[in-house]
Structures are given as structure tokens and as C-alpha cells.
Amino acid sequence: MQSQLSATSDLKYVEMQIENARSMSPQNLGHDRRKPHCLLQMIMNKQLTKVNCGRDVCHFELETLSYDIAYQVGDVLEILPSQNPIPVEAFIQRCNLNTDSYITVEPKSVQTGIPDISISRTPIKLRTFVELAMDITSASSRRYFFEVMSFFATVEHEKERLLYFSSPEGRDDLYQYNQKERKTILVLLEDFLSVQMPFEWLVQPVPPQKTRPLSISSSPASHPNQVHLTVSAVSWMTPIKRKRSGFCSTWLSGLDLKEGVQILVWFNRGSLPPPSPSLPLILIRPGTGCAPFCGFVAEREVQSRSGPTAPILFFFGCRNEENDFLYKDFWISHAQSDGVLSEEKGGGFFVAFSRDQKQKVYVQHKMQDQIQRVWSLLNVGAAEYVAGSSTKMPTDVFSAWLSKISKGGSYNPLTLLSPTVFGGINGFLFTVCIRIPAQVLGSITGVKLILQTFPEVGYGPRLNVDLHHGALTEGLFTFVIISISLGLAKNGPNSFFIKIWITSISKLALHILGFDLTGGCMNPAAVMGWAFARGKHISKEHLYVYWLAPIEATLLGVWTFKLLSPPAKKQEEEAKKSK
What are the protein's GO molecular function terms (predicted)? Predict the structure, then answer.
């Protein structure tokens, strides 16, 4: 049994068939009716990940000998996968259709609001229309299809069930039965065998066959008349343990190169604009999202042959070096001497293996390690490209930026003091002699400005208990918050925002507990700001409760944490070298 898109198909005939079929589809009126830009043939199907590693990522190379392919790096290739002839034939037999019949599909009235719309009235073979315009093997139908089926059900219990599914009361059960299981049109028709729908009724509610967009991972400059794709095969288990696979990725992976199957494709502009050779780049992406960046690097390499090019920093992430380090040889070759990712040219390639060590390392951690180089490129106008999940990836990258921007900036002397206690003497002296006095002066100035604007704003922290009770309160609270901060820094979650949230909630809780005792401040600079700006303070009380007790608690907290959680030998060696 042959698909309509075999290698022996005449190109012009195939284009005409596609245009006719997709223009007749009622759900495609006014859009997606274009004939394909070209037909490509697969010349390479290579698995990039190790077998049985939990991920199946493939590299595909498509080629044409008949056309000059016109696209840019960062563009998107839309593919129309062919449906398996076996379920197509099963659908035709289930609906009692004549495979050899020719049809035309016309709406009763065309009111699309789109000018110059034309619907093909050239008869097309029914089988070809089903293959190219009706998605019967992958898409899940909506509630309307169940309502239509109920009109043609001849068995009472099937009719009642279909009516229930199409009613508002049956919405939740329909979701469990249909959407969660991703039941296809063919499966639904096989579940309700008494339903005999005329073909003219099937055309409207059956989902149309859609193209699948894939990021191009090649450059036309380095591979003319070729398109490379990096595709992750999608598969999952439904709630009742039925295995489901992604239609397009499974179809591409299963193509036999010897059969020479023609692949229908359209080229579209991607969301990543192609950069000029003089524009420095910062590329950030884990996993298969590196696909468009393969094209960026390949094109920059071609451009470097004819003149100077700007540097590229690339931050890449995967789980394991052995299992899913995609395009390892490609990246390493360009990161070597004189490569476009080499340090000699101002660039760099930094890879994070999240599962190769006990503590997970992600792309954002590598960015933090190289933040000075990133800033240097940004200062000369570099463009930053982030590819990946539209929700998680940008948030993680932003967290890395925010974490680095805020690093070193503090309004609490205790925050500055804790990491320098067991550090180098130079850092300790700089903190004690320069940074802490600067914080105190800033606090006093800030409070005075506040009081000038809002004279009745308040008096700041007050000691409402005896000296020893107050010192114990501030010391205990400081010890707790220092322990929490150090614990989060070493073994906490990777998310910068979660760390900030935990720290903030902890400080707020301690502040509430100590508000009626000492104000629960845990910040000597803030207390001094209020005391000296108001001109109302008792030196002994101030120094003993708000300075000496928190500083002693900070030293005790750092010492205790170091004792209970000693650094690894590698970290100790690096610390000694830094001294």
C-alpha cells in the first residue's frame, strides 16, 4: 500500500494535489492553503543520544536537487508529515467509503472575510483528501464531534453516552475519556461502532492535517541546498498506561532513506533574527534548543573566512556528558584555537552537566561563573539569544542576572561579615574598615531623608526589655537567620527567587516575634541610622544589644556551620589559591 507522497510522485502533480486538498478543507479556508515551498528528501537520520538514556534525540539532514533553498539561520521549517496508510485505509473501510472515488468539497457559502479566496473545484481522489486534509491518526477531537456522532448512532446506549459527553454535565468525563487519552478520530469511530456518518458530515468536525514547525539547525552558507533538523522524539504514557508518541517526530524517525520519501516543507521566519558578522553574541540554551545556534555558529565560521567577526559566548546544558551532549564534536572543534567560540577570539563555550555530579549544575550557574566576560560583551553591544521553554528558561536566566547584579550589594553589616570571617585577611579588613562604615553612613543619611519627608513616620527599633534579655533576643534571631542563609547558599534550591522567598519569610517571622522586645531588627546599621538621626540613643544599650550580640551570633553561626558542614577538599584548595 503506497502513500500519495512516494518518491515516484511527479512534483508538480503532488503540489497540485496538496493545494487542491488543503484548499477544500473547511477548517483551512483562508489560511494554510499554500502549496509547499519545496519537497525535500532525507539523506541522514542519526541518533544523537545514547540508546536507553531516557531521551531520543535525532539529527536529520534533508536535501533537494531541484530547487535553490532560500532561508536564513534561525528560521523555522514547517513539515507536513504523511499519515500511515494502514490507519488511513482502516478509516476509509470503517466509514464505508469508496477509495477510488473522486470528490469536491465546497461550503454552502464562503464568508471568510478574506479577499481573493479561491476554492479548488478540481475533483480529487477521496483517499488523497483524507491523507492530506484530515487528521485521523494524531489529533484529538472536540466536543462538537461527539454531538455530531450522536445523530448517527443507532444503538441506544452509544447514543446516550455520546449525548452525555457533548453536554455540559459530561465535560469532566469527556476530558478523562478523550483529551487525557488523546483518542484519535479513528479510535473514536471504533469505540462507537453503530455510528455511520456520511462523508459530507465527517469533513467539517474532523481536525485538519496541520504542519509541524521545527527549528532549523543549519546554515545555508555552510550547507547549500540542505536543511538540518534536531528533533526530540516525544512519547508519553496516558493515565490508563497507553503509550502515545509524537506524530511528526515518530514519522521522521521511522523514514527509510532507501525509500526516498518526499517531505513537504514550508519555510517561515523564526523568532531569532540572524545577526550580522560584527555583532557579538551571547547564546544560552540547554538540550535540543541548541538547534538554531548550530546554524548561528556554522554561519559565523563561514563569515570568518572572508573577514573578522565578533566573538560568541555559548552556554549549553545537558544531563550527562556521556548520554546527551548533543553535537559535542561540533562545539569543541569551534571552541579550539582560532574557532569562532575560542577564547583567542574573545568567545567561549561553557557546558553544564546537571547530573554528572552530586550537586546539580545548570546553565545559569555557568553564566554566574563567567559573568565578567558576559558583562564585557554586553558593554560593547552584544546581543543575547535565549532559546528554550517560554516560561522556565527566561526566568532561570533572569535569576542568574539578578543574582549576580545583587551579589556584593548589601545593607546589613552582618551579611557582609559572615562570608569574610574565615576568608582572607584583606577581604575582612576591607569589610570592617570600608564597607560597614559606608553602610552606617548610608543608613543615617537615608533615615534623615525619610524624616524630612515624613516627620511622624516613627522612631525605629526600641529596646523594651532589659539589656541581657535584649542581647539574647537579637543574638538568637541573628544566629537563626545566618544559619538559614548559609544553608540556602550551600544546599538550597537552585532558584534564586525561591532562596530570596525563604530568606524573606524567615526574616519577617523573626521580626514579628521580636517586635515587642527589641524590634527584631538584626541589622546594626539600620538601628544606628534611626538612633543617630533621631538623636535619641543610649550608647551602652545600642552597642551591647544591637552591635555586639548580633556580631557574636554571626561569628558563632559561621563557625557552627563550618563545623557541621565542612567544604569539600576541592573547594578548600580553590579557597587557598584565591588567598
Answer: channel activity; flavin adenine dinucleotide binding; FMN binding; oxidoreductase activity
Tell me: do 429 and 503 sit in the same domain. Answer: yes
In 113-232, the DSSP E strands lie at 124-125, 212-215, 226-232
Claim to verify: residue 315 and residue 419 sit in the same structural domain: no
- Domain housing 119: 11-139
- Distance between CA atoms of residues 533 and 91, nearest Å: 84
Total domain count, the chain = 3
C-alpha distance from residue 454 to each of 413, 449, 532, 537 (Å): 26, 9, 17, 20
Query: Nine-digit cell at 14?
Result: 503532488
pTM metric for this prediction? 0.68
The answer to whether 81 and 251 have CB atoms below 8 angstroms apart is yes
In a shared domain, residues 375 and 475: no
In degrees, rounded to 5, the angle at the alpha carbon of residue 503 between the alpha carbons of residues 497 and 507 is: 145
What is the model's pLDDT at position 301?
94
d(C-alpha 101, C-alpha 124), whole Å = 8
Quote the strand ranges of 247-302, DSSP E.
Answer: 262-268, 281-286
Structural domain contains residue 206:
no
Residues 366 and 501 in one domain: no
Q: How far apart are CA 69 and CA 46, in angstroms?
A: 22
The total of other beta-carbon atoms located within 10 Å of residue 444's CB is 17
Nearest to 240 by CA among 178, 190, 284: 178
Q: Specify whether the CB–CB gap between 146 and 162 falls below 8 A.
A: yes
CA dihedral 101, 28, 263, 96 (to 10 degrees): -30
State which residues of the chain have pLDDT below 70. Answer: 1-35, 65-67, 107-121, 286-288, 388-432, 435, 439, 455-460, 492, 494-497, 520, 533-539, 566-579
Please check whether residue 530 is in contact with residue 521, taking contact to mean a CB–CB distance below 8 angstroms. no
8-state DSSP, 139: P
Name the phi and psi angles at 351, rounded to 5: -120, 140
CA 387 – CA 290 distance, rounded (Å): 7
> What is the pLDDT, as a whole number, of residue 393?
57
Residue 242 lies in a domain: no
Supply the pLDDT for residue 428: 64
* In a shared domain, residues 355 and 423: no
**For 517-555, b where at least 16 C-beta lie within 10 A, e where not — what string?**
bbbbbbbbbbbbbbbbbeeebeeebbebbbbebbbebbb
d(CA 380, CA 404): 19
Q: Tell me the per-residue pLDDT of 435-471, one tens digit each, with 9 for 90 and over.
A: 677 767 777 777 777 777 776 666 667 778 888 888 8
